[in-house]
Design brief:
Layout: E1 28-30, E2 39-41, E3 62-67, E4 71-76, E5 81-84, E6 86-91, E7 94-97, E8 102-105, E9 111-114, E10 117-120, E11 125-133, E12 136-151, H1 159-165, E13 167-168, E14 177-180, E15 185-187, E16 196-199, E17 205-212, E18 215-221, E19 225-226, H2 230-240, E20 244-253, E21 256-262, E22 266-270, E23 279-284, E24 289-294, E25 302-305, E26 312-314, E27 320-326, E28 334-342, E29 347-352, E30 361-366, E31 381-385, E32 390-393, H3 405-408, E33 421-427, E34 433-439, E35 452-461, E36 464-467, E37 471-474, E38 478-480, E39 483-485, E40 487-493, E41 499-505, E42 521-526, E43 532-534, H4 536-539, E44 547-551, E45 559-566, E46 593-600, E47 620-621, E48 631-637
Length: about 650
Amino acid sequence: MRWSAKGATLAVMRIALALGALGAAVLTAVACSSDEGGTASNAAFGGNGGGGTGGGDAATLSNVTIEPASVTTTVELGKTAQQTYKAFAQVAGQQTDVTTQCSWGVPAEFGAFSGAQLTLKAHGGVTQVTATCGGASAQSPLTVKLIGQLSDATAPANAASLFAGAQASTDPTQSPVIEYPLDGAVAPRNIPSVEAQWAAPAGDVYHVRLSNQHLELSFFTGNREAKLTELEWQSVTSTIAGASVTFEVEALDAQAPATKYVSQPVVLNLSKDSIDDTAIYWWASSQGELLEQTFSETDAPTSIKGSCTSCHSVSRSGKRIGYSRCVAGDCNQLFGGFMRFDEATKTWVEAVDADNKQIQGSYSTFAPVGYPFADDSQSVALFALATNNLELYDPDTGAVVPSNVATVSRQHPSDPNQARTATMPDWSPDGKSVVFASTPTAGQWIDVGQSAIATMSYAFNAGNHTFGTPKFLVSGAVTLPSGSYENFFFPSYSPDGSLIVFNAARGPWRNFQVASSPGQRLMLTNANGDWNVELAHMNGQGDLDITWPHWAPSASSDYLWIVFASQRDYGHRLTAANTTASCVGNGVMQCKQIWIGAVAKNKLPAAGATSAVDPSAPPVWMPGQEITANNISPYWTLPSESVVR
C-alpha cells in the first residue's frame, strides 16, 4: 500500500441500517451501510445459503433466532475474513437447529454467504445479516471495522513500535502541518486516491493515520506524502461514503525516537454517490492544447486539439466544441472555430477552422439537445464577437443564423439606446434562456470591467430564433469581507438551470501585472437573481486567482459540483516557489490548476427566499492533471463517447 497523506485521524461516521419486514416469498430489506441506504432484494445480497433436510418442517418454523445474536469484528485492508452463523427455530415446541433450511443474506458490499458462512470483504460499516427460514426470518446486527498497518521502503522495519513507544510532544512549532487535503473539503465518492501531503519541521519518519468509527489505517513512511493504491482507496471510500475520514500525521527522529510530534487533524468528507460517465475538458494554456479526461481516471488526458491559444466551450452533450485562436500567433487576429465529434470514426472533426478568419470572436456556447432541435445532428451556437455583440451561428458551416441577438444582446434592460458589450455566454440546460456578461464599455469582448450578470430569453417558433430583452441579475457593487466587488463575469448555469455560479472581482479582469490582484472569487445566485452569496469556503483565504467556473452535468444525492481554475497551492507538489517557468507570465505567478468544489443541496435557499448562506466547502484538486501545465477553462460535461486514446 502506498498513499500520500497529510496526517490525520478519520472522523467517524455512523451509518444505521434498518431491515424491514421480510415476506415469505421475497426477502426485502432496508440495508443502510456506510456506503449508502436503500431497499434491496435477495439479488442485492451477497449470496445466500440454504437447502438441506435438517431440523424440521419449514412450514411449521417459528421464533427464528440467529447465533451469534450480533457480531462486531474487523477486516484487514486487502484481505477477507470469515464468520459462521447458525439459525434456530421452534419446531413442534422444540428449539431446533434449522441452519440448512435458511437463506442467508447481507448487502453485497459487506461480503457474500456460502451456506451459513459469511466471507467479509475489506469494507467497514454497520449492517444486518438476515436468515429467512420458510415463512419466518430473523436479523443479526453486524459491525465491521476496516483496519490496516502498512509501510513503504523508506520507513524502518520497526516504525510501528517506535511510534508506539514515543511520547507525544505539545510543542506546536515542531508538529507536522497537513497541507493537503484541505480541512473540511468534500470530494465525490469516486475521486481517485487522494495523496496526503504535509510539512514537517522535525523528524524523518512519519506515521499517517486515517480513521473514523469504522476505519483505522496506519501507514509509515520516510516521505512527506503518501497515497493508497486505487484498490485500497476504494475500500476506504466504500466504507466512508456519505461520511468523513480524519487524517493525522505523527513525526519522530528514528535515531532519537523518544518524542513524537503530532499534527492537527484534517477531515475529508465524501459524497454518498459516485459521479459517473462524465468528462472534464480543459485548456492547458501553457502548452496550447485542449485536453479531455474521464472523471475518476488517472491516466494521461487525451489531446483534443493543439494550437488552441484562447477560449473554448464544450456542449452539454459533449459532442461539440467551440474555440478561438490567435491566428498565426497574432492575438490581434483572434478568430473562432467549431469542432464536432464524429460517431463513426470516434474522432473530432474541425467543421469550421479558425485559421480561415470566418468568425472574429472569443467565447461561445451551444444550445442544448432538445431545444431548439431534438438531436445533435442540428445545432446552433452563440459567439461573442469583436463587434461587441453576440451572434448566432450554424456550427457545422460557420454561417450566421438569422436572429435578433446581435441587437438585443447589447441593450441595457431599462435603456435600449445604451449600447453595451455582451460576452461570456452560457446557454441554459432547457434551451430557453442565455446568461452572459454585460459590460458598459465597448471592445470588452475578452476582458471585462464593471460587468453585470445578465439573462435573456430564447424562443424558436416557425423557424425564427428570437431573444428577449436582457435582465440584470447581479450588477452594481457587492460588499464582501475581502472588499467591494463591482465586476461580475463567467456565468454558468447549474444542471437543472436553477442556479448560476459566476466570478466576482474588485476591478477589471484581467490584470497582466498581477493576475490575482482583482481578487476573483466565486459567487452564486438563482436563475431569477433573487439572492446572491459568496462561495466563501470554496474560495478560501486570500486572492487565489479563481476563474472559469462550470458545473458537473449531474449531481449526487447530497451535492452539486463546480469545477474551476485557481492559483492555489497543491500541497507542496505545486507552489509559487517550485512552479514551472512556462506557467509564469501575463501576471500569473504559478501554474493554475483545476479544482472541484461541492455545493451542499440541503443548504440552498428554499423557493421564494431573498437571502442565502454559503452552501460550499473547501475544494479538492482534480487528480490526473499535469502540475507543470497552466490548466484553465475547465468544462465538466459528458464524454464524447470513447475517445480513442
